[in-house]
Amino acid sequence: MEPVKLTAKDYKTSVPIVWCPGCGDFGVLNAMQQAAAELQLPPENLMVVSGIGCSSRIAGYINSFGFNSIHGRALPIAAGAKLARPDMTVWAAGGDGDGYSIGTNHFVHTIRRNPDITYIVMDNHIYGLTKGQVSPTTPHGDVTKSTPQGNPERPLNPLALALELGATFIAQGFSGNVKHLRDLIVQATRHKGFALVNVKSPCVTFRGRQEFNVIRERGEYLDEKHDPSDWNQAHEVTQWTDKVPLGVIYKIEGVPTLEGVAEEARQKALERRSFESTTELIEVFR
Amino acid sequence: MQDVTLAIAGSGGDGVITAGDFIVQAAARKGLHAFMLKSYGPQIRGGESSARIRISDRPIYSQGDYVDFLVVFSWKDFNRFLDEIQLRKGAVVLYDEADSTPREEFPIDADLDIEYIPVPFKKMAAEEIKVPLTKNMVTLGVIAELLHLPLEAIKDAVMKKFGKRKPEAAQVNFQAIDLGKAWVNENLPQGTQVVLEAEGSGEPKLVMTGDDAVAYGAIHAGVKVFSGYPITPASPILEFLSKWLPHFGGAVVQTEDEIAAITYAIGASWAGKQAMTASSGPGIALKQEAFGLAAMAEIPLVVVNVQRVGPSTGIPSKSEQADLFQAVGGTHGDVPRVVLAPSDVEDNFQVAVEAFYIAEKYQIPVMILTDQFLGERSETVEAEVLFARKRVISRQLAKPSDLKDYKRYKLTDTGVSPMAIPGMAGGQHVISGLEHHEDGRPTSSGTLHQTMSEKRARKLPLIAEESGFVRIYGDDDAELAILAWGSSKGAVREAIEQAQELGIKVKAIVPQLIYPVPEKAFDAALKGVKRAVVVELSFGAQFYRYLRAYYDGLPDETHSYARSGANPLLVSEVFETIKKHAAELGMLREA
Asked: How high is the ipTM of this complex?
């Protein structure tokens, strides 16, 4: 019997969606469900971990083992899960406040460890769930509820940061182009190592519908002229100020993964010495 | 003497701790009971350090209040330990005759009748062995000869440390040890007043620190992922597991911070593997939010807190029992949790096993409250005792029948719901820190919040009735009881024995399970008790206040003996406390 082919519908759940009408995150959800179908991932082998924020609700909306955890901690939970179960596909997801503000330390160090997980950040340049405060990626000068005089701080550049830290896969998508985003998530999932997919996912409530138009106007899809294996080209792209790069910006293969290194350590340990049972370890205390 | 306490005080480069380790190992090989407490100043290298070692024929539970035998490399360094090293009347003090600071500058009470013996430790090492660093080995030879410790056992221990890698180093050390021994025979023909007459059982014992014991206990219980961040005095747990866990199919991550350390463990446990993290007070404070997540999402988790002096950075290298409130009350919300407290090194092993037993069985986070005094001390233990308590550790996983219309938080009589783990087809669901329906969907319903709070809390009375968590020492039918927890047990137990010798009927009640309160076991232990005294090293009397708040069965006359930590609890202060209360109860007849 032919196995039943999974479709995007198979990754839907009955959990009611709380997002505002028109929210960019709907596009990300669709892209993730379509990517899962494209990859034919058995739902029981998919783990989706998020933090806290509007976008982090996404863990409940994908038929998988979902974990809508606490603010900023999606990455260490996802990496811990992957370390324990390398046989699973692990996606982490969340917003810019979750990943680039309260969770920045984990963003930095997860990249260094390179677990084979995909991190999808719904970057909307605002704190939406708490109703409109400035975020780490809000443009300089923008008025928000917590910056009535305009944002005094310069925004963080997650793509450049990831590149500098040695991320092995960096891409940027747009929730207004689901098909393109789906392809990015598919590539990111197939990549062996930590994959960042930063998604421009507008918050229509606190930054207005025109955000979609801004990305449409300024978005520039990377074509064959861009070589993602070239660090210098990738770096240049991350420094664009007037255009928004969309596509795979950087990608290198062959960097050891967190769980791969752990497996190697186990093999080496067993070569040195193997124990019949844990009680035998008592010898080290004699 | 059958029970000797000796101390060595010097600075970092003197090899004080190494010498102490060898003495303890030699005693263990002879089948003696031994105990070593290390003490450091704040400097990483070159600062003062002391090793305090007690050796006896009988089981020992504390560090010994008074020092019988002291080795001083430098009076200046010794001076920094005045707080901790109290000499017994008639004690023997060996000191380096080449010390630049005359000992007269640090006068010790003349009434103590100390016997001072200048020894050319430094000179012998530098001029005869021609390796100044062997000073501690010369010292070892002197101590072994004076105490009548078997030189062979000490050499075995030296071989174990240097033998394979540096055989020439072992040989040089042997020469130094022999030189120390010869010096005693030539210069102190009459011997001294300190001779250890204990023979030992001849059955070699193991030597373990509490940190190693809790780490080994976790391996024995089946931990597969450990994530930790370096912190004094918990780092040895991270180091032990880094070395040994891969041999047992596990993995260790040194994370970027304390929060990542606990959340890695949560992720691993959610994925289906036993997981643990460890830290000390400041790090535990950082982990609290995630600890609450494990409670809300009902994820099995073991968190070790090797308590140190607080608040804030406190005294990182010293012990205190003042994290009890943060263990039972830390983090927001009504948090179902479990707090276990080991009371000696062997207990650190067993409590680690118990922690996994409870965490996995009840799908609840468990905090192990150990402390620096347990974690960093070395103690002789016996393998049979270590493995005596057996527990079957397993998580209630979803069966195929559960996976039809699967409900992760299904309401059950025990509060425990079958857990689906990744890879189980049909088991997909979402979990979160949000309040939820039975199937995991988030809710903001107050009615459901009440229902789910009740569900989670149903586990607690069952845990409180798990057996074997309350120990009683002394007279069963005593009217006077000491209530103590954790590392205070040692001094309390010895004080009880001393009081009994005086004819005072007294018992000690020491719970391994702190929260939930093992009420029935407490009720039984306190039956017939007229007066209880809660003894602890917490300035704020946290254990006393905790019992007052959480347990209704205390005797009307319940008193508190509490002081701040850093200096270990002394047998004598507990003994005096017992005597005082016994006198008030009319139990003490005038001699």
From this structure: 0.98
